[in-house]
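Whiteboard transcription, Tuesday session. T.W. wrote the structure tokens on the left side:
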């Protein structure tokens, strides 16, 4: 349309074309404004649901604090303070939204006129004075910055460090790089300056959602073990623990009753053992009665608690055996019925009725740790024999032996930033992540080092890496991947810490899905 002399007709066509483009832009703007309004409604609705869920969780906690104040009282007090802090912050944001939308008339469904809320001057005047942040803007920033600090001060060690880091990141107000400006901008400038009013309202609603999510996450994290395991006391299992497993004829049977999930702050209303009431202590009840004759005997009774205004009785049912003087040893692995090559296997070796200082045991790789405790470090072969000798009070000797299978450590599972299976996240996160390995359901604490792996992106060549971090070649291949692509980390080479060049069996791969 530029250059040359145009006829009146051509000028008219050009003018109509420009008007048409302007109309399209206007329509698109209205659609975008409406989209923000719809999104804001969805967030507000979700916030209401979260409020209801948080209130329900808190009421459950409040009842638990009544039933077991020693176990739940302190945590309930912390949650009450956090909920009060969250409400104050949420109401502050709601007042801002109310003040900047009061001149707009809502329709019959209660919706704001989104398409009229295309100006940002109300928020700009509230948060900024020229190019500087206003007094109200500074107050807004202080509210955000202080929220996570106050949460940490109230929750203390009750909030896991990993959870606290998520909360701090959620309310971070660090400067943000702007592609348009080509420089870092203050967080409040980047997020709130010059935006349409409906977009800012939506952002404030999302900030309210972050507050409610934080409240929910704190309760979930702080009480994850208590509210899940102790949601009902029927989840507990009374266990009879004898002072020793077998008693001689004529001895007193001594021991205690504990709950499967022992908690020193949990106390029963009453405990009945074999028809007699015994004293209830914190998390347990001790008992003592005559052993009786040789043979099998039953122990019965109940643990009784108050829960939600009712008495919950947990049945006690167990048996014990009275035997004559011992003639064979009791040998058991503390953690499993086999011993593993490459790790130190703790074991308890004893003769029933014989003190630990009168018992000796020997086997290849076996060493004493004192008090009836031993450490087994098996060598080659598939089986080891442990020989045990006990000296009875009369000076006579009894001997026994037992075979144990020797197994190698099972193959570990690969991890990305400590997560197994299919891990999801942006490419930038994978580029700086550490490739690791875990031994799933393995009873020993062992250190694992990843010394190499293969990285494969669909449609790209496999990259072989030395070490546990992505190298430049990985990042080059990764740059060609798009959202939804999966990156497979396989052929992970894993070593035991302190085991020299010994490599573990094949490590299972881990997959990273790009968001």
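and on the right, the sequence the group agreed on:
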């Amino acid at each position: 349309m530029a250059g040359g002399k145009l006829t009146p007709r051509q000028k008219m066509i050009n003018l109509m074309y420009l008007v048409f483009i302007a109309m399209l832009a206007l329509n698109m703007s209205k659609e975008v404004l409406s989209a923000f309004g719809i999104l804001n409604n969805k967030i507000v609705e979700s916030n209401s649901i979260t409020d209801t869920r948080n209130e329900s969780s808190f009421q459950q906690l409040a009842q638990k604090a009544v039933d077991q104040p020693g176990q739940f009282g302190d945590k309930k007090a912390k949650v009450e303070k956090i909920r009060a802090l969250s409400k104050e912050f949420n109401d502050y944001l709601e007042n801002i939204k109310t003040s900047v939308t009061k001149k707009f008339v809502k329709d019959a469904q209660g919706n704001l006129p989104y398409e009229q809320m295309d100006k940002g001057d109300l928020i700009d005047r509230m948060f900024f004075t020229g190019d500087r942040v206003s007094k109200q803007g500074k107050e807004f920033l202080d509210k955000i910055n202080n929220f996570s600090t106050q949460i940490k001060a109230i929750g203390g060690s009750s909030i896991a460090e990993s959870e606290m880091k998520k909360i701090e990141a959620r309310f971070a107000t660090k400067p943000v790089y702007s592609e348009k400006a080509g420089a870092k901008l203050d967080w409040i400038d980047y997020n709130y300056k010059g935006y349409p009013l409906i977009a800012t309202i939506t952002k404030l609603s999302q900030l309210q959602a972050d507050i409610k999510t934080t409240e929910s996450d704190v309760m979930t994290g702080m009480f994850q073990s208590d509210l899940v395991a102790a949601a009902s006391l029927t989840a507990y299992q009374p266990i009879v623990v004898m002072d020793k497993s077998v008693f001689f004829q004529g001895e007193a049977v001594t021991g205690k009753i504990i709950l499967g999930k022992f908690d020193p702050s949990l106390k029963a209303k009453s405990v009945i053992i074999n028809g007699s009431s015994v004293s209830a202590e914190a998390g347990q009840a001790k008992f003592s009665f005559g052993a009786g004759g040789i043979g099998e005997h039953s122990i019965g009774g109940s643990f009784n608690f108050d829960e939600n205004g009712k008495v919950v009785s947990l049945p006690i049912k167990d048996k014990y055996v009275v035997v004559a003087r011992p003639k064979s040893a009791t040998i058991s692995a503390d953690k499993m019925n086999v011993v593993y090559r490459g790790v130190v296997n703790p074991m308890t070796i004893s003769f029933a009725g014989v003190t630990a200082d009168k018992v000796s045991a020997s086997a290849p790789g076996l060493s004493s740790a004192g008090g009836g405790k031993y450490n087994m470090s098996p060598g080659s072969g598939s089986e080891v024999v442990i020989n045990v000798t006990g000296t009875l009070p009369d000076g006579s000797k009894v001997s026994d032996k037992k075979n144990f299978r020797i197994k190698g450590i099972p193959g570990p599972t690969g991890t990305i930033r400590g997560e197994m299976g299919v891990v999801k996240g942006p490419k930038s996160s994978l580029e700086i992540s550490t490739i690791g390995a875990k031994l799933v359901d393995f009873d020993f604490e062992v250190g694992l080092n990843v010394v190499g792996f293969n990285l494969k992106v669909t449609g790209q060549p496999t990259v072989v890496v030395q070490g546990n971090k992505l190298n430049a070649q990985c990042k080059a291949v990764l740059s060609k991947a798009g959202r939804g692509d999966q990156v497979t980390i396989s052929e992970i080479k894993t070593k035991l810490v302190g085991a020299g060049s010994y490599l573990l069996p094949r490590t299972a791969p881990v997959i990273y899905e790009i968001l």
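Someone added at the bottom: The longest strand covers residues 310-323.
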